[in-house]
Amino acid sequence: MATQSSFKNAFANYTDYLNQLNEKRERVVKASRDITINSKKVIFQVHRISKNNKDEVLDKAEKDLASVTEQHVSRLVKELQGTDFWKLRRAYSPGVQEYIEAATLCNFCKNGTLLNLDEINATLLPLSDPSLEPLQINILDYLLGLADLTGELMRLAIGRISDGELEYAEKICRFVQDIYRELTLLAPHMDDSTDMKTKMDTMLQSVMKIENACFSVHVRGSEYVQLPGSSDPSYLLLGVRDNEILSDISIS
User: Fold this and answer.
1) What is the per-residue pLDDT for 243?
2) Mean pLDDT in runs of 10 for the chain (252 residues)?
3) CB under 8 Å to 12, separation ≥6 — which residues?
4) Residue 196 and residue 147 in contact, taking contact as beta carbons nearer than 8 Å
5) What distance in Å separates the CA atoms of residue 129 and residue 135, rounded to the nearest whole number?
């Protein structure tokens, strides 16, 4: 009877543990979903940028990102601090990747540099209880989020080209090329490389789209000149050289 009672107690403990783990997983999934939704809003805000409203748009995006950190990432940190958070990685990974994408996009547009993993994890430390092991974003989720960043940078580059900011688009192109080159060297050595392999294919398409767009502007741009005396950049002549226009004006 004592043996049977000990078995019951042991399995009752297992049941309680699994129930608590499932409840925690549900809360983590909900927090991850909220992080994803609100991080996407930050990304959409960044894409409103133009050469006339850059500071205003980025200030708003940074405030929105801080709100995501304080309201939603903090919930995830409280759930996972002091626990074996690798066990629930699949539950929170999508939200973390989207958050990294939003944070690195804001930082690039603001400072022109890449926000590294240590800098991101440093922003999470104040959200943790000092007496518990803090949640730290792992390198795999960081790299997966970085791979997604290139897609947003491709959209940003195309937008900047349409707004006449070719130099900015070329800067984005070089930045994305650097990311792709480094990840190409790193991806084959990653243990869990299935997700990265898919993202690498998409990343290559983004790199090619930016390169083709910048190249097309350089090639096709040489075929267009602005009419003398016109301040309208959309009022152009096709296939006419500057010196031909100037000679026609001097003759008349």
Assistant:
1) 42
2) 75 87 92 97 95 93 96 92 80 95 96 95 90 87 95 94 89 96 87 81 94 86 52 44 38 36
3) none
4) yes
5) 10
* 52 vs 145: CA distance, rounded Å: 29
In total, the chain counts a number of residues equal to 252
